[in-house]
Amino acid sequence: MIEFSFKYALKSAIGENGLEEMEIRSLENDLVQARRNLNELRRNGDIGFYNEIGDAGMVASVKETADRLFSKDFNTLYVFGMGGSSLGAIFLKEASGGIFRESYNNENINEKAGENGGGFHKKVNVIFSENIDPCYIHKNMQNIDIKKTLFCFVSKSADTIEVVSQFFIVKEMLENAVKNYKDNLLFITDKKSGFLRQYADENGIATLDIAKNVGGRYSIVTAGTLFPAYVMGLNIDKFLHGAISYRDNILNKGVFENNPVYSLAAIIYLYYKQKKRNIFIINAYSDYLREYSRWFRQLFAESLGKDLTSPTPVPAAGATDQHSQLQLYMQGPQDKLIGFFCLKNFCKDYIINPSGFEEYGYLKGKKLSELLLNELTGVELALATLGRPSFRVTIDKIDEFTLGELSFMSMEMVPILGMLLKINPFDQPGVEKGKKFAYLLMGRKDESMSKELEELNRLNNIPDLTY
Ligand code: PA5
Prior knowledge:
Helix content is 45%, strand content 12%. It is an alpha/beta fold. The model is unreliable at 103-115 (pLDDT under 50). It binds 5-phosphoarabinonic acid. 5-phosphoarabinonic acid binds next to loops.
């Protein structure tokens, strides 16, 4: 279950910087229209994540592929993917460390893979490279047994230069280490197009598909995320049930009928448009939601940052960053809206016992989680008294179901906000130019990059400062 509190975004609580309830309500027609537009895209098959969460065939093939490949002597899964092709799985991996189970509390669910109902019965070390830093990859390679590793390349386009380059490096290493390098590979890509897909088809490499109509940042419900999640020991059925349940619940109700995901979109929109809050802080008050804030940032930034619009999303962590950024939030420019994301129940807790230290007597018998949540409340109160807006999203506890709910809530809120901002939340035209310069610098020749070649030459001819 996910609960929202918007009190500290309201004028009644924070004064003139706050919103009137009427202002939020005035967006009802726009929100209804935004949802209608989104539903139409879904019905036309233009965007697929709504339907993907109910694709039993996709889930079966993820499980079958994992069970088959890991019936071999593999003990490690090494996943390569950029942006949306790895952030979702990294979020789930980190979150799984804080998973709440009735029967036991554990630090690493993968150690109990068979017990948690996920269905995957082998202990596998799952690691990621979401970058092309050679030292980091080298360090990982030194820590694994290459022969016992399944290398999984996730790329929707099957053409992303970072992933393709990593593949060439891994392929060469495998050729020197094992009899048939193809046995240690899995590609998760578009069903038909792109270099990696073609290579896999021609060379008999194992594959899984990512549906054509699901973009990278919405791909947390596809094989690209679910395969590593299943191998980690997560119950991917429960994760998808959480997403389905959230979807069905919000779509069957009016936008202001106890349906806070739409109020959230309206509040972020109004703070950006009317109150010049250009920065949106995604502040996770649990170590196990830190990667959620990175995943959510990508979803937000790549979906909304276009046509000269959108607040800038910035991830933060509490209570850690109270000792790093809070001063800025309290007394810096009045340009931020802060979203707090926290837990109600923790997988493990400690009772504080300050016996013998009288000055700390007030802590006696208190839980450590109480301190964390009261610190959060303290920050909210302090911000409110300074006329600084925030809202809170509380997740009942971390388990697969709530992670599915949280993911779906985020993937509904962002496109709705995009439609309020009147931009297309499903493309990312801005990232192409940087890629073109990189191609040119790496020696690729292509007519379509003649403009960038001209710009590169002009900039190369400008002398740098020499002091
Ligand atoms: O959200 C997106 O679309 C991007 O972040 C992509 O996921 C990222 O660029 C990787 O693309 P691909 O999956 O095609 O390799």
